[in-house]
Amino acid sequence: MRIGVDIRSLSEPISGIGRYTLNLLELMVLDESHEWVLYSHQPIVYGQWNLKNVSVRTLSFPKWIIGHYLPWSQFILPFWTKQDNIDIFWSPAHRLPIFLSKSIASVVTIHDLVWKHAPETMRPFGKFLDSSFMPKSVKIADKVIAVSKSTAKDLYIEVPESKQKTIIIYEAGSLAFKQLIKNDNSIKKYLLFVGTLEPRKNLARLLEAYSLLPLSIKEEYSFFIVGGKGWGKDDIKSIVKNFNIKKYVKILGYLSDKDLANTYQKASLFVMPSLYEGFGLPLLEAMSFGVPVVTSNLSSMPEIVGNAAVLADPYSVDSIKEGIKKVLTDKQLRFLLSSAGLKQSKHFNWKKAAKKTLHVFADALSSKQGRNF
Length: 373
Fold this sequence. Notes:
By secondary structure, the protein is α/β, with parallel strands linked by helices.
Protein backbone atom coordinates (compact mmCIF):
# COMPACT_ATOMS: atom_id res chain seq x y z
CA MET A 1 0.00 0.00 0.00
CA ARG A 2 1.01 3.61 -0.57
CA ILE A 3 -0.21 5.28 2.61
CA GLY A 4 -0.62 9.00 3.25
CA VAL A 5 -0.77 10.30 6.83
CA ASP A 6 -1.67 13.68 8.31
CA ILE A 7 1.12 14.20 10.88
CA ARG A 8 0.58 17.87 11.70
CA SER A 9 0.41 16.90 15.40
CA LEU A 10 4.17 16.20 15.19
CA SER A 11 4.97 19.76 14.12
CA GLU A 12 4.22 21.32 17.54
CA PRO A 13 4.75 20.52 21.25
CA ILE A 14 3.60 16.93 21.51
CA SER A 15 0.33 16.11 23.26
CA GLY A 16 -1.90 13.03 23.47
CA ILE A 17 -2.76 12.80 19.77
CA GLY A 18 0.86 13.52 18.86
CA ARG A 19 2.07 10.67 21.07
CA TYR A 20 -0.53 8.35 19.55
CA THR A 21 0.57 9.28 16.03
CA LEU A 22 4.29 9.03 16.80
CA ASN A 23 4.18 5.71 18.63
CA LEU A 24 2.09 4.00 15.95
CA LEU A 25 3.92 5.43 12.95
CA GLU A 26 7.42 4.67 14.21
CA LEU A 27 6.41 1.00 14.33
CA MET A 28 4.30 0.82 11.18
CA VAL A 29 6.88 2.40 8.85
CA LEU A 30 9.28 -0.46 9.69
CA ASP A 31 7.13 -2.62 7.43
CA GLU A 32 8.99 -2.04 4.18
CA SER A 33 6.26 -3.66 2.10
CA HIS A 34 4.40 -0.33 2.31
CA GLU A 35 5.32 3.17 1.16
CA TRP A 36 4.52 6.13 3.38
CA VAL A 37 4.01 9.82 2.58
CA LEU A 38 3.74 12.00 5.68
CA TYR A 39 2.05 15.38 5.41
CA SER A 40 2.06 18.52 7.54
CA HIS A 41 1.41 22.25 7.17
CA GLN A 42 4.63 22.97 9.07
CA PRO A 43 8.08 21.35 9.39
CA ILE A 44 8.09 18.21 11.54
CA VAL A 45 9.92 18.31 14.87
CA TYR A 46 9.22 14.78 16.19
CA GLY A 47 10.21 11.39 14.84
CA GLN A 48 12.97 9.97 12.67
CA TRP A 49 11.64 9.53 9.13
CA ASN A 50 14.81 9.03 7.09
CA LEU A 51 13.80 5.57 5.84
CA LYS A 52 13.82 4.54 2.20
CA ASN A 53 10.08 3.80 2.20
CA VAL A 54 9.13 7.11 3.87
CA SER A 55 8.87 10.62 2.43
CA VAL A 56 7.75 13.80 4.18
CA ARG A 57 5.94 16.66 2.49
CA THR A 58 5.44 19.94 4.35
CA LEU A 59 5.05 23.63 3.79
CA SER A 60 8.08 25.70 4.75
CA PHE A 61 6.30 28.94 5.59
CA PRO A 62 6.27 30.11 9.23
CA LYS A 63 2.98 29.60 11.03
CA TRP A 64 2.28 33.33 11.21
CA ILE A 65 2.28 33.44 7.41
CA ILE A 66 0.22 30.35 6.63
CA GLY A 67 -2.22 30.88 9.49
CA HIS A 68 -4.48 28.07 10.67
CA TYR A 69 -3.99 24.52 9.34
CA LEU A 70 -7.64 24.28 8.19
CA PRO A 71 -7.14 25.67 4.64
CA TRP A 72 -4.10 23.41 4.21
CA SER A 73 -5.91 20.28 5.41
CA GLN A 74 -9.08 20.83 3.39
CA PHE A 75 -7.66 22.19 0.13
CA ILE A 76 -3.89 21.68 -0.26
CA LEU A 77 -3.74 18.23 1.32
CA PRO A 78 -6.33 16.62 -1.02
CA PHE A 79 -4.33 17.94 -3.99
CA TRP A 80 -1.07 16.54 -2.59
CA THR A 81 -2.54 13.08 -1.95
CA LYS A 82 -3.90 12.88 -5.49
CA GLN A 83 -0.58 14.08 -6.91
CA ASP A 84 1.33 11.47 -4.86
CA ASN A 85 -0.87 8.56 -6.02
CA ILE A 86 -1.88 7.65 -2.48
CA ASP A 87 -3.85 4.40 -2.09
CA ILE A 88 -5.09 5.08 1.40
CA PHE A 89 -5.13 8.16 3.62
CA TRP A 90 -5.14 8.09 7.42
CA SER A 91 -6.02 10.97 9.70
CA PRO A 92 -5.00 10.17 13.32
CA ALA A 93 -6.87 13.24 14.58
CA HIS A 94 -10.65 13.32 14.12
CA ARG A 95 -10.98 15.03 10.74
CA LEU A 96 -10.49 13.96 7.13
CA PRO A 97 -10.07 16.29 4.15
CA ILE A 98 -13.66 16.54 2.93
CA PHE A 99 -12.46 16.93 -0.67
CA LEU A 100 -10.19 13.88 -0.58
CA SER A 101 -10.35 12.06 -3.93
CA LYS A 102 -13.03 9.38 -3.99
CA SER A 103 -10.46 7.00 -5.48
CA ILE A 104 -8.43 7.11 -2.24
CA ALA A 105 -9.49 4.88 0.66
CA SER A 106 -9.65 6.67 4.01
CA VAL A 107 -9.38 5.90 7.71
CA VAL A 108 -9.95 8.33 10.57
CA THR A 109 -9.14 7.84 14.27
CA ILE A 110 -11.64 9.23 16.75
CA HIS A 111 -10.19 9.85 20.21
CA ASP A 112 -13.19 11.43 21.89
CA LEU A 113 -16.39 13.42 21.41
CA VAL A 114 -15.60 16.25 23.78
CA TRP A 115 -17.53 18.67 21.56
CA LYS A 116 -20.67 16.65 22.32
CA HIS A 117 -20.22 15.58 25.93
CA ALA A 118 -18.19 18.43 27.46
CA PRO A 119 -18.47 21.33 24.96
CA GLU A 120 -18.02 23.94 27.68
CA THR A 121 -14.44 22.72 28.14
CA MET A 122 -13.41 23.43 24.53
CA ARG A 123 -12.24 26.50 22.70
CA PRO A 124 -15.18 27.77 20.60
CA PHE A 125 -13.28 27.35 17.33
CA GLY A 126 -12.12 23.84 18.23
CA LYS A 127 -15.69 22.95 19.14
CA PHE A 128 -16.87 24.30 15.79
CA LEU A 129 -14.27 22.29 13.86
CA ASP A 130 -15.00 18.98 15.59
CA SER A 131 -18.79 19.36 15.57
CA SER A 132 -18.71 20.33 11.88
CA PHE A 133 -16.04 18.03 10.46
CA MET A 134 -15.97 14.95 12.70
CA PRO A 135 -19.43 13.54 11.81
CA LYS A 136 -18.79 14.22 8.11
CA SER A 137 -15.38 12.56 8.33
CA VAL A 138 -16.84 9.47 9.98
CA LYS A 139 -19.53 9.22 7.32
CA ILE A 140 -17.12 9.42 4.37
CA ALA A 141 -14.40 7.23 5.92
CA ASP A 142 -14.07 3.66 4.72
CA LYS A 143 -13.01 2.60 8.22
CA VAL A 144 -13.03 4.31 11.61
CA ILE A 145 -10.73 3.60 14.54
CA ALA A 146 -11.99 4.36 18.07
CA VAL A 147 -9.46 4.32 20.90
CA SER A 148 -11.85 2.92 23.51
CA LYS A 149 -15.22 1.22 23.88
CA SER A 150 -16.48 4.40 25.52
CA THR A 151 -15.53 6.52 22.52
CA ALA A 152 -17.04 3.96 20.13
CA LYS A 153 -20.31 3.96 22.10
CA ASP A 154 -20.47 7.77 21.98
CA LEU A 155 -19.76 7.65 18.26
CA TYR A 156 -22.49 5.10 17.51
CA ILE A 157 -25.06 7.39 19.13
CA GLU A 158 -23.90 10.45 17.20
CA VAL A 159 -23.31 8.72 13.82
CA PRO A 160 -25.30 5.44 13.83
CA GLU A 161 -23.89 4.23 10.49
CA SER A 162 -20.40 4.24 12.05
CA LYS A 163 -21.17 1.02 13.93
CA GLN A 164 -20.63 -1.10 10.83
CA LYS A 165 -17.15 0.24 10.11
CA THR A 166 -15.64 1.10 13.51
CA ILE A 167 -12.80 -0.91 15.01
CA ILE A 168 -11.63 -0.40 18.60
CA ILE A 169 -7.85 -0.25 18.94
CA TYR A 170 -6.45 0.79 22.30
CA GLU A 171 -3.50 3.10 22.78
CA ALA A 172 -0.53 2.18 24.99
CA GLY A 173 2.14 3.84 27.13
CA SER A 174 5.08 5.73 25.66
CA LEU A 175 7.68 3.49 24.04
CA ALA A 176 10.41 5.94 24.97
CA PHE A 177 9.86 6.10 28.72
CA LYS A 178 11.54 2.86 29.76
CA GLN A 179 14.78 3.86 28.04
CA LEU A 180 14.80 7.30 29.65
CA ILE A 181 14.59 6.47 33.35
CA LYS A 182 17.59 7.45 35.40
CA ASN A 183 18.51 6.05 38.78
CA ASP A 184 17.56 8.55 41.44
CA ASN A 185 17.44 7.57 45.09
CA SER A 186 16.17 10.94 46.31
CA ILE A 187 13.03 10.67 48.41
CA LYS A 188 10.21 13.07 47.54
CA LYS A 189 6.59 12.34 48.25
CA TYR A 190 4.18 14.00 45.86
CA LEU A 191 0.88 13.72 44.07
CA LEU A 192 1.12 14.10 40.30
CA PHE A 193 -1.18 15.45 37.61
CA VAL A 194 -0.19 15.28 33.91
CA GLY A 195 -2.22 16.88 31.15
CA THR A 196 -2.86 20.03 29.17
CA LEU A 197 -3.97 22.79 31.52
CA GLU A 198 -7.51 23.34 30.27
CA PRO A 199 -11.05 23.22 31.76
CA ARG A 200 -11.75 19.59 30.81
CA LYS A 201 -8.98 18.44 33.14
CA ASN A 202 -10.90 19.78 36.16
CA LEU A 203 -7.88 21.29 37.89
CA ALA A 204 -9.85 23.88 39.84
CA ARG A 205 -11.81 21.18 41.70
CA LEU A 206 -8.69 19.03 42.06
CA LEU A 207 -6.72 21.87 43.65
CA GLU A 208 -9.62 22.68 45.96
CA ALA A 209 -9.81 19.02 46.98
CA TYR A 210 -6.08 19.00 47.71
CA SER A 211 -6.44 22.18 49.79
CA LEU A 212 -9.07 20.46 51.97
CA LEU A 213 -6.83 17.51 52.84
CA PRO A 214 -5.57 17.36 56.43
CA LEU A 215 -2.51 19.53 57.02
CA SER A 216 -0.47 16.44 57.91
CA ILE A 217 -1.06 15.00 54.43
CA LYS A 218 -0.18 18.23 52.63
CA GLU A 219 2.98 18.54 54.70
CA GLU A 220 3.98 15.01 53.73
CA TYR A 221 2.84 15.04 50.08
CA SER A 222 3.45 17.94 47.73
CA PHE A 223 1.46 18.31 44.51
CA PHE A 224 3.24 18.45 41.13
CA ILE A 225 1.36 19.72 38.06
CA VAL A 226 2.81 18.83 34.64
CA GLY A 227 1.45 20.08 31.33
CA GLY A 228 1.55 22.80 28.75
CA LYS A 229 -0.77 25.77 28.95
CA GLY A 230 -4.06 25.09 27.21
CA TRP A 231 -6.84 27.61 27.28
CA GLY A 232 -9.61 28.86 29.54
CA LYS A 233 -10.09 31.45 32.23
CA ASP A 234 -8.64 29.34 35.04
CA ASP A 235 -5.31 30.75 36.15
CA ILE A 236 -3.65 27.85 37.98
CA LYS A 237 -1.30 30.12 39.93
CA SER A 238 -4.22 32.27 41.11
CA ILE A 239 -6.21 29.20 42.16
CA VAL A 240 -3.23 27.88 44.11
CA LYS A 241 -2.84 31.25 45.81
CA ASN A 242 -6.56 31.53 46.62
CA PHE A 243 -6.57 28.11 48.30
CA ASN A 244 -3.45 29.01 50.27
CA ILE A 245 -1.48 25.98 49.03
CA LYS A 246 1.35 27.74 47.22
CA LYS A 247 4.01 26.21 49.47
CA TYR A 248 2.83 22.69 48.57
CA VAL A 249 2.18 23.00 44.82
CA LYS A 250 4.84 22.95 42.11
CA ILE A 251 3.81 23.85 38.56
CA LEU A 252 6.38 22.19 36.29
CA GLY A 253 4.91 23.09 32.91
CA TYR A 254 5.68 21.05 29.81
CA LEU A 255 8.39 18.39 30.35
CA SER A 256 10.62 16.47 27.97
CA ASP A 257 10.03 12.71 27.75
CA LYS A 258 13.08 12.12 29.93
CA ASP A 259 11.93 14.45 32.70
CA LEU A 260 8.35 13.23 32.45
CA ALA A 261 9.42 9.59 32.76
CA ASN A 262 11.38 10.35 35.93
CA THR A 263 8.53 12.42 37.35
CA TYR A 264 6.10 9.52 36.84
CA GLN A 265 8.53 7.02 38.31
CA LYS A 266 8.88 8.81 41.66
CA ALA A 267 5.24 9.89 42.16
CA SER A 268 3.36 8.61 45.21
CA LEU A 269 -0.07 9.00 43.60
CA PHE A 270 -1.37 10.01 40.18
CA VAL A 271 -4.58 12.05 40.16
CA MET A 272 -6.65 12.82 37.06
CA PRO A 273 -10.33 13.58 37.76
CA SER A 274 -11.13 14.77 34.21
CA LEU A 275 -14.66 15.68 33.21
CA TYR A 276 -14.35 13.60 30.02
CA GLU A 277 -11.67 11.47 28.34
CA GLY A 278 -11.74 9.38 25.19
CA PHE A 279 -8.85 7.30 26.51
CA GLY A 280 -6.73 9.11 29.09
CA LEU A 281 -3.17 8.21 28.10
CA PRO A 282 -1.53 9.65 31.27
CA LEU A 283 -3.52 7.11 33.32
CA LEU A 284 -1.89 4.28 31.42
CA GLU A 285 1.54 5.89 31.64
CA ALA A 286 1.22 6.25 35.41
CA MET A 287 0.07 2.64 35.84
CA SER A 288 3.01 1.39 33.76
CA PHE A 289 5.29 2.83 36.47
CA GLY A 290 3.28 1.19 39.24
CA VAL A 291 1.89 4.52 40.48
CA PRO A 292 -1.48 4.27 42.30
CA VAL A 293 -4.26 6.21 40.56
CA VAL A 294 -7.31 8.26 41.50
CA THR A 295 -9.47 9.16 38.51
CA SER A 296 -13.05 9.86 37.40
CA ASN A 297 -15.92 7.40 37.40
CA LEU A 298 -17.18 8.36 33.94
CA SER A 299 -16.50 8.13 30.18
CA SER A 300 -13.48 5.94 29.28
CA MET A 301 -11.57 6.21 32.54
CA PRO A 302 -13.05 3.19 34.39
CA GLU A 303 -12.53 1.13 31.21
CA ILE A 304 -8.83 2.01 31.00
CA VAL A 305 -7.90 1.62 34.69
CA GLY A 306 -9.94 -1.51 35.40
CA ASN A 307 -9.55 -2.39 39.09
CA ALA A 308 -6.28 -0.44 39.37
CA ALA A 309 -7.66 2.87 40.62
CA VAL A 310 -9.94 4.59 43.09
CA LEU A 311 -12.80 6.22 41.19
CA ALA A 312 -14.28 9.59 42.19
CA ASP A 313 -17.12 11.83 41.04
CA PRO A 314 -15.26 14.59 39.13
CA TYR A 315 -18.05 17.09 39.84
CA SER A 316 -17.71 16.60 43.60
CA VAL A 317 -14.75 18.22 45.38
CA ASP A 318 -15.45 16.08 48.43
CA SER A 319 -15.42 12.86 46.39
CA ILE A 320 -12.05 13.77 44.86
CA LYS A 321 -10.66 14.69 48.28
CA GLU A 322 -11.86 11.45 49.88
CA GLY A 323 -10.40 9.40 47.02
CA ILE A 324 -6.98 10.99 47.48
CA LYS A 325 -7.14 10.68 51.26
CA LYS A 326 -8.20 7.03 51.05
CA VAL A 327 -5.13 6.08 49.02
CA LEU A 328 -2.59 8.20 50.88
CA THR A 329 -3.65 6.92 54.30
CA ASP A 330 -3.79 3.21 53.38
CA LYS A 331 -0.39 1.65 52.62
CA GLN A 332 -1.93 -1.72 51.76
CA LEU A 333 -4.31 -0.09 49.26
CA ARG A 334 -1.40 1.72 47.60
CA PHE A 335 0.43 -1.58 47.21
CA LEU A 336 -2.63 -3.29 45.73
CA LEU A 337 -3.29 -0.44 43.30
CA SER A 338 0.35 -0.36 42.26
CA SER A 339 0.40 -4.10 41.52
CA ALA A 340 -2.96 -3.98 39.74
CA GLY A 341 -1.80 -0.98 37.68
CA LEU A 342 1.32 -2.74 36.45
CA LYS A 343 -0.79 -5.75 35.45
CA GLN A 344 -3.48 -3.61 33.79
CA SER A 345 -0.96 -1.59 31.78
CA LYS A 346 0.39 -4.77 30.16
CA HIS A 347 -2.93 -5.23 28.34
CA PHE A 348 -2.07 -2.20 26.19
CA ASN A 349 0.65 -2.65 23.59
CA TRP A 350 1.77 -0.41 20.71
CA LYS A 351 3.07 -3.30 18.62
CA LYS A 352 -0.32 -4.97 18.81
CA ALA A 353 -2.02 -1.63 18.04
CA ALA A 354 0.26 -1.03 15.02
CA LYS A 355 -0.48 -4.50 13.61
CA LYS A 356 -4.23 -4.00 14.02
CA THR A 357 -4.06 -0.53 12.46
CA LEU A 358 -2.31 -1.87 9.37
CA HIS A 359 -5.04 -4.52 9.08
CA VAL A 360 -7.63 -1.74 9.20
CA PHE A 361 -5.82 0.05 6.37
CA ALA A 362 -5.83 -3.11 4.26
CA ASP A 363 -9.53 -3.69 4.97
CA ALA A 364 -10.34 -0.07 4.07
CA LEU A 365 -8.49 -0.36 0.77
CA SER A 366 -10.16 -3.68 -0.03
CA SER A 367 -13.56 -2.19 0.82
CA LYS A 368 -12.92 0.84 -1.40
CA GLN A 369 -11.71 -1.26 -4.33
CA GLY A 370 -14.69 -3.59 -3.98
CA ARG A 371 -17.14 -0.69 -4.15
CA ASN A 372 -15.32 0.90 -7.10
CA PHE A 373 -15.37 -2.42 -8.95
